[in-house]
Amino acid sequence: MNVKNSRKLAFLLVTMMVLSILAGCNGTGSQTTSEVGSKGTSDGKPITVWNCDNSPLFEDAVKQLIANYKEANPDMEVEYTGLPWSNAKEKFDVAIATDTAPDCAYVVQSWVGSMANAGGLLPFNNYVDQWDIKDEFDLDLIYNSGLAPTGDLYMMPFEYGSVICWYRTDWYKDAGIKAPDTFDEFFDNIKATNDPASRRYGFSMIGNANVMTQLECFLISYSGTTSYFDDKGECFVTDPKVLEGLKRYAGLYNVYTAEGDISNSHIEMLAAFGSDLAGTIYHNSSSYPDHLKNLEDPSLFDCFVLPTADNGVRSIPTGSFSYAGWIMFEDTKHPDDTWDFISFCCNSEQQSYWNQTVAGLPTNLVTQVEPWVEEYPALARLRDALATEETAFCAVPVEYPDFMSVHTNILVPGFQAVLLGEKQPEVFLEEWNVAMKKAKADYEASNK
Q1: 304 - beta bridge partners?
Q2: Is residue 110 located within the same domain as residue 215?
Q3: I want to staple 157 with a disulfide (CB 3.0 to 4.6 A). Which of 223, 301, 308, 323 is the partner?
Q4: E strand or H helix at 329, and its extent?
């Protein structure tokens, strides 16, 4: 049995456990199937496209891309399936394990590693090498951002996002402060805008099951690390600067935040920011529409990328939250036609449409300098930060099969215990180090 098939067999044994759950779900997402006749690929079949999020915003945007492609390529047909975000990853896993995957799909970066490790994806390296518009992309940035940890590029990134700080400009103006240039100023600003007696807190944080994306990104940036593991194989959390950053961050809770933040999802955090309850939050660069809806006046809020660390590096994590884009499945019967569709979606015109719609930063450099980007403050700040010499990526190893279980089952309750004073920060970080070292060792052993 070859490696690919053995991986798929292992994948199948796991995904069989979720088949009954999936079968019980209401519906399978929306699906639109084009007529299949003499048109289409070389075998007369349509290109099959899945979308990992069938919420109206993304559903309509993907369908429009398909319509644009068909208008430019009238001889091609495309079959579309939109999946509910809540169980899309499981559906992809089942499709890979049972050889029923589509030709391509739009997904988030954090899913790509496990899919590739299961032998389900086709790398883009050869296509990109011969691509007539490859100079419109910063390929060094793409290859060094965790998208190709083994040198194989399994995703053609379509949009970029990052965790970024949003702040109330009116609060900062009243306090006589500005967006911070250092982490000391970051914490000083939170203190300067804190007035719990008036139910105005300097900060609001996520505290529920999604807390680790926010915390991990913050600690990477605070320490200025550019590698998740050091030369000795220790996780970055063993750096004394991480302990310092954790203590400062956790120390915000219930002093400069509301006590209820420990159970916050992003929904409650965004609501606090948009209703005069919090002066600063740390959230997705794509949340601009939420702030505009809640505050109505765009002059009342702005954003900044976290400052450079004491070592002079502005470290931006990738993996847990960064790219989203297109993948091609290994079992596609017409890879060239599928690449033609994907490359069309990544051209400047289509990226401009897509990213204006979903508030993402284009990966196409031509699109990045279009005037509309300036209308989205987070995108402009993020683009400018990526262009500076002090900015570097730290790839978060979301490709490890145990990555999510470690974060969900060990780190989330561990950090909540730190916030409540029930666990020492040093103990929490040691648990983090041990768990991720084991996840790394298991991943490497499975790939020998």
Answers
A1: 165
A2: no
A3: 323
A4: strand 323-329
